[in-house]
Structure formats: structure tokens, C-alpha cells
UniProtKB/TrEMBL annotation:
Keywords: ATP-binding, Cytoplasm, Glutamine amidotransferase, Hydrolase, Ligase, Nucleotide-binding, Purine biosynthesis. Pathway: Purine metabolism; IMP biosynthesis via de novo pathway; 5-amino-1-(5-phospho-D-ribosyl)imidazole from N(2)-formyl-N(1)-(5-phospho-D-ribosyl)glycinamide: step 1/2. This is Phosphoribosylformylglycinamidine synthase subunit PurQ. It comes from Carboxydichorda subterranea. Part of the phosphoribosylformylglycinamidine synthase complex involved in the purines biosynthetic pathway. Catalyzes the ATP-dependent conversion of formylglycinamide ribonucleotide (FGAR) and glutamine to yield formylglycinamidine ribonucleotide (FGAM) and glutamate. The FGAM synthase complex is composed of three subunits. PurQ produces an ammonia molecule by converting glutamine to glutamate. PurL transfers the ammonia molecule to FGAR to form FGAM in an ATP-dependent manner. Its EC number is 6.3.5.3, 3.5.1.2. InterPro entries: Class_I_gatase-like, PRibForGlyAmidine_synth_PurQ. Transmembrane segments: none annotated. It catalyses: L-glutamine + H2O = L-glutamate + NH4(+); N(2)-formyl-N(1)-(5-phospho-beta-D-ribosyl)glycinamide + L-glutamine + ATP + H2O = 2-formamido-N(1)-(5-O-phospho-beta-D-ribosyl)acetamidine + L-glutamate + ADP + phosphate + H(+). It comes from the Bacteria. Part of the FGAM synthase complex composed of 1 PurL, 1 PurQ and 2 PurS subunits. It is found in: Cytoplasm.
Length: 260
């Protein structure tokens, strides 16, 4: 039985790459039907890879701006090319920052409103289940996921934000996760529940096609009971389901996932 292959990219300064590989291969394991493999930032060929994760960390020491230099790494050309063809790409925290700097998602990350590094679990509400990374959740579901960043204060010009939110009202939504209160209170109305000041209280955002998603919280840090939450597991299960369905639709042998 074959599993779909997820490439997990390591840039100089990435520090969550092994955690993501562990979450996919061990925590999610057979349930997701995925196999995570490390991909070096100098790699320019992604053949045999069905999806990519850009993990969190401090690529290039956050020099200039978080993600600014990593966005120019050779692997990002390949990621951009495959993303245009519809390959699922997930950027987690620093990975989200890299996707913004690479122009694969709109907007930018500013320093947190508090001008401090914030490291704690926060509630987020699932706003869209129309992405390869969220389809196993329920719309409106409140998840508890850890954040750990200094630059998570999402910014987009009003026009762009309007487009993002407009798309959110009709399916498919582009706001994927939104910061909220413990009972799902909307952080746009209750700003005390917006940890970093992000525009629209956006915690995760998709491109118009829905295959490229940036997420500030860390699902890999909430994929095992002993970590305090398994709410992140749905990300890997969603991706496994999505790739398996794609494979079935293409008339390829069922297997549990993607590539032979
Ligand atoms: N956990 C991370 O990926 C850190 C992200 C980023 N370097 C920041 O502090 O904003």
C-alpha cells in the first residue's frame, strides 16, 4: 500500500521540520496515509512529492524580515511552480511568513501588537473546510492550538482584505482559521481574543485556489495527547483524505494516499 509523499522543507534556521515529520509519520501515522520526507532548501526538483510543508522556525535568523531570504531559496521556485499546478502547500508560522514574502499569499506579517514574542495555546475557529488541510474539521469548530511567534500580526491593505473576506462569505473561503474566544467569540468583535493584532483576526489564510495555506498556530505541536491537544491532527488527516481523493479521481490505484 502506498502513501502520499509530503516534502517537509528545511531552510537554515528552520526548527520545526523534525516535529512536522514526526507529527505526520508517527502521530498521524497510518490514519493519514501520508509519508513525510525531508527536503533541503537547495532542492530544485520536487518530482515524487505530492504536497509540501514549510515548517516554522527562524529561517536566516529572521534577518531583514521573517521569511524574506528563505523566499528566495532555490526550493521556492519549485514550490511556486507546483503550487500553480494545484499542489497543496502548507506554511506554518515562519512557513506562512515565507509564503507571504514569496508572493504566494497576499499581505505581510508585522510585529505582534504587544511587541513581544507570544508562546501559548490559543483558541481558533475553523472558518473554511474547503482546503486540503481543513476538510476533516467542522466549520465553526473551535480548536486549541499553540502559537509561538514575534511577527504574527497579519496585515493586508483594505482592498485585499475585502477580497479575502468577500471570498469567505461565499464558498470557498479564504480565511481558514480566525482567532476567537474559548467559546468561539469572534476576535474581530472582542479584540482581547486577538493575541497579536492580526487584521481580521486572521490566523490562517488560503490563496484563491485554496491549495496554498499559511497558518500561524502550530498543528504539529497539537498532534499528540501528551502535548495537551490533538486538535492539530485534523490537518494531516485532511491532507491524507484530499490526496487520496485526487488519486482516485485520476483513476490511480486506491492505496492510502498519493504517489506510487
Ligand atoms: N515559530 C516560528 O515559526 C517563529 C516565527 C518567526 N520567526 C517569528 O518569531 O515571528
Amino acid at each position: 500500500m502506498s502513501a502520499a509523499v509530503v516534502g517537509v522543507v528545511t531552510f537554515p534556521g528552520t526548527n520545526c521540520d523534525r516535529d512536522v515529520v514526526h507529527a505526520i509519520n508517527r502521530a498521524a501515522g497510518d490514519r493519514a496515509g501520508l509519508r513525510a520526507v525531508p527536503v533541503w532548501y537547495e532542492e530544485a526538483d520536487l518530482s515524487g512529492i505530492d504536497a509540501v510543508v514549510l515548517p516554522g522556525g527562524f529561517s536566516y535568523g529572521d534577518y531583514l524580515r521573517s521569511g524574506a531570504i528563505a523566499a528566495l531559496a532555490p526550493v521556492m521556485q519549485a514550490v511556486a511552480g507546483r503550487a500553480r499546478q494545484g499542489m497543496p502547500v502548507l506554511g506554518i508560522c515562519n512557513g506562512f511568513q515565507i509564503l507571504l514574502e514569496a508572493g504566494l499569499l497576499p499581505g505581510a506579517m508585522r510585529r505582534n501588537r504587544t511587541l513581544s514574542f507570544i508562546c501559548r495555546a490559543v483558541p481558533v475557529r475553523v472558518e473554511s473546510v474547503e482546503t486540503p488541510f481543513t476538510r476533516a474539521y467542522r466549520k465553526g469548530q473551535v480548536l486549541r492550538l499553540p502559537i509561538a511567534h514575534y511577527e504574527g500580526n497579519y496585515f493586508a491593505w483594505p482592498e485585499e482584505l475585502g477580497a479575502i473576506e468577500a471570498a469567505d462569505e461565499a464558498a470557498p473561503g479564504r480565511v481558514v482559521l480566525r482567532y476567537c474566544g474559548p467559546d468561539g467569540q469572534d476576535a474581530r468583535i472582542f479584540p482581547e481574543y486577538n493575541p497579536n493584532g492580526a487584521a481580521g483576526a486572521i490566523a490562517a489564510l488560503a490563496n484563491p485556489a485554496g491549495n496554498v495555506v499559511g497558518v500561524m498556530p502550530h498543528p504539529e505541536r497539537a498532534s499528540e495527547e501528551w502535548l495537551g491537544s490533538t486538535d492539530g491532527l485534523g490537518v494531516w488527516l485532511s491532507l491524507g483524505q484530499w490526496l487520496a481523493e485526487r488519486r482516485a479521481a485520476a483513476g490511480l490505484p486506491a492505496g492510502r494516499g498519493g504517489a506510487p
